[in-house]
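Renewal narrative, Specific Aim 1. Our central claim is that a sequence can be written position by position from structural information alone. The example that follows is taken directly from our test logs and has not been curated for this report. It begins with the structure tokens describing the chain, in the order in which they were read.
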């Protein structure tokens, strides 16, 4: 079992930065691939970024490449999403997720690949 708790969301202006954090419980955290998803009102949940269990490979939604950075600290059971140059289109509830299986590549892009989810944190970017 893994429990995930996100934090760090808020209301910012376009061009600002935010750092989301995801605190994970469970002794096997370091064996999980981790992802960030987001969901805007009236839209489906969307893949944002993922990182493999070792932290050696990362994957991003095209529209956030170069602006967002996912990282993890297995010693602290933490995953982070650094978001720079935020745009109003980034406004959504952001969710942290953990996947027991780690097949890499496009496997990370589907919400169905993840076994555990946090409750979400709201990010609102004003223009």
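The sequence written for that structure reads:
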């Amino acid at each position: 079992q893994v429990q995930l708790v996100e934090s760090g969301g808020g209301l910012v202006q376009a061009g600002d930065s935010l750092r989301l954090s995801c605190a994970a419980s469970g002794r096997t955290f370091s064996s999980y691939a981790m992802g960030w998803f987001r969901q805007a009102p009236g839209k489906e949940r969307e893949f944002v970024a993922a990182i493999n269990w070792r932290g050696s490979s990362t994957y991003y939604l095209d529209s956030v490449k170069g602006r967002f950075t996912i990282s993890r600290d297995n010693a602290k059971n933490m995953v982070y999403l650094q978001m720079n140059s935020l745009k109003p289109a980034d406004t959504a509830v952001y969710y942290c997720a953990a996947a027991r299986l780690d097949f890499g590549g496009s496997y990370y892009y589907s919400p169905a690949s993840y076994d555990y989810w946090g409750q979400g944190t709201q990010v609102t970017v004003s223009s």
